Amino acid sequence: MIDYHPYDTKIDGVHNINQQNCERIKQQCANRSSIKFAVISDTQRWYDETKDVVSSINNRTDIDFVIHCGDISDFGVTKEFTLQRDILQKLHIPYVVILGNHDCLGTGGDTFRYIFGNPNFTFDAGKTHFVCLNTNAFEYDYSTAIPDFTFIRDDQSCITPHITNTIVAMHAMPHSDQFNNNVADVFEYEISKYPQLLFCLCGHGHHRTVNDIFGDGMNYFECGSAKTREYLIFTIKGGNYDYEVVRY
After folding, report:
1. Calpha distance 161→154 (Å, rounded)
2. What does the alpha-carbon distance between residue 185 and residue 33 come to, in Å, rounded to a whole number?
3. CB-CB neighbours of 100 under 10 Å
4. DSSP string of 90-119?
């Protein structure tokens, strides 16, 4: 009998999920001015609750895709990633997962990259551009460019003309314990350069909040953890949006 170490990065099953699902989202939402998506976060050790949120989303027919705002694992253990992945794979619609601070523990960063992909990525859904960023600077001892302004600026330089809105998603918002708050104001300034930034999404705090943290009118919507048994649904129509809280 071979007993693998909890942080062994030998991984079976589907991988490179974000890139594949970003392409699916782009194709399914092409040329649409109206989209609807769900936001979940911090599923961590709450496996039953994660199964229930998947069932709740699958019972609806109006949602185009799901964004998971990070902390899919609790201790960065490989088995945690694969268990959560296998639950989310039961979704009937595409989903993407953002890197959380718990996902960076041990060899979690490597596991995340293999299963989901680059911690910084973007995709288009209709006329809306989604920017998904690693903001867990504390986990890297501030030794890595997090947030990655080069990635942000390079992305801004190649946005296609049909894009009219932008949404920025992350795990830890500015002014949180994980964010590099030395550059919080710079971050807000840089993301404000995107075409009509509508709002920002995040997790980490485990409770649902809406914060205009810079006092500039830009709302940060924080999604609660799976323990709260609720998730968010956003509807984008043209340059406007609304949202609802779903309890399950």
Report:
1. 15
2. 31
3. 33
4. T-SS-EEE---SGGGSTTHHHHHHHHT--S
Residues in the chain: 248
Whole-number Å distance between alpha carbons of 152 and 229: 33
Nearest CA among 38, 26, 36, 29 for reference residue 230: 38
- Asked whether the whole model's pTM tops 0.90, one would answer yes
pLDDT for the residue 3: 55
The CA angle 114-70-212, to the nearest 5 degrees, is 145
Q: pLDDT of 184-230, one tens digit each?
A: 999 999 999 999 999 999 999 999 999 999 999 999 999 999 999 99
Confidence band for 143, pLDDT divided at 50, 70 and 90: confident
Domains observed in the chain: 17-247 (3.60.21.10)
DSSP letter, residue 24: H
pLDDT band at 33 (very low <50, low <70, confident <90, very high): confident
| C-alpha distance across the termini of the chain, in Å | 41
Q: Quick one: which of 89, 69, 86 has its CA closest to 78?
A: 86
